[in-house]
Design a protein that fits this description.
By secondary structure, the protein is α/β, with parallel strands linked by helices. 63% of the residues lie in helices and 12% in strands. It folds into three domains: 106 residues, Response regulator (Rossmann fold); 163 residues, Alpha-Beta Plaits, CATH 3.30.70.270; 111 residues, Homeodomain-like (Arc Repressor Mutant, subunit A), CATH 1.10.10. Helix 5 packs antiparallel against helix 6.
Length: 539
Amino acid sequence: MYRIMIADDEGIVIDSMKYIIEKEFGDECEIKYAKTGRSVIELAENYRPDIAIMDIHMPGINGIEAIKEIKKFSPGTLFIIMSAYDKFDYAKEAIKLGVLEYLNKPVDRRKIISVLNSAMKQIETSRQKRSSDLIIKEKLEIVEPIIENGLIYDLLFQEEFDEDIENYRTMLGIKENYGYMLSIVCGDDQEGTHMTNAVGSSVKLSRKYSEIRECVKEFFNCKMGNVMSNKIAVFIPFEDESMDYTTRTELIDTSRELVRYLKKKTDISVRIGIGKVKKLKELGDSYREALNALLATTSSVAHVDDLSISCDYDEGYPKDLEKPLFEAISHGDLEATKLIAEKYADWMCKSAEEGTLMSMRLKVLEFALYAEHLAYQNGGQTYHYSGRDNYLPDVMAIEDSKGLKDWFLDKVITSCQNVMNKREEKSNDIIKDAKNYIDAHFDKDISLDDVSRVVDISPYYFSKVFKEESGMNFVEYLTSVRIAKAKELLEDSDYSMKEICVLCGYTDPNYFSRIFKKNVGVTPTEYKTSVICYQNADR
């Protein structure tokens, strides 16, 4: 259905236009008309026409001025001017207003139909686009919270990879390199620094999550996680690496307003903790700061920078090297460990020249012990209680910063190598045991689950490790063992094809023949024939 409005002060023109449109388009069009500039504006305000056929000269407000007014409240209306005045100034003004067509009276019937068809096609295209946009928007409203929660989960539990973060940034339109976290904590009432009835409140929070999400996004351009216990984690992207006093004060005021607004809209009592601005990969620390801020005060809103609960560092201390170094050790990333440890050691050497050697002794000992702790934790090694009795005497005996640097690098790099080697050893042992089992049982009906149970790891992880270490998946390896055995039996035995099929772990001779041909290029029979021909020729 297309809504068409005719604006002309001549009744005969209106009647003629109605007749042409109704005859050509029938029930597809609904037609209304007006005869003065003022009445056409009033009609358009209520009717919101898809197409307006306008005369220029009408009593009162002229057609051009009427179009200007109508476009203010109905920008989607398509205008067709039909005038007896062939003036350049009118045409020029019409072009400026984006009029679809400027027709001079009298207008041929075919021309009117052609212009209306063109207008209807344009309207239909616009409607389809709006419909598609609405479908996309609806899908995004379903998918976006899931993506946002995935980002929050990865950040909080530090399970992210660089490529994951970049994918999330692209999908969610995050351009900033920094951000900070809010922790929205709900409960029935506040007792000291805690909210009561966390379990019951979490149920209430989950029921009203969509409403809360809308409220929070009215106040902040943010990404929200799902309900975790009685808490919701909120990530707010930020352009700068730190927040000045004025911005922090405004943030706290906004958060206090949000607390009141949530109580009014949802009848849920909340407190909001705010962490420091961090790099995206360090937002888990910002969230923990937000939680700690709430534990340090009874205020409804608490910013960690207002409280004496965070650690400050000497100016120039390379704090940004600490976390990457320990992450590299935990992951067994030897190249990254060497690079970061070298930078940190150089800084310690420079500091030792300006201060005392004792500070460097303590720091290299601290880092070496923690690096080994990470190696025990991540490398599956055996801990020896007395294994480090000589560390303190060794460090105290070193009299220069270079010696301490060498000792430090040796311990840290060795810890990383232990993680890497232990993981490789475990993977190698898994693959060795798996292959031994397959080699011994290939003639049975064995599955990936059977083998993963033998090596005592989950089927999913076994499949991943087996592929990475052997270069082929489980089925490919099992098939290669079976085909090798089949070739051996075909070359040097008198077994029938059916017997060879069973001896190689296959129950269906036809399937065995297809698999053999796929891997060898010929059928088992053709292979045996070629072997016999070769042996006879050799004799």
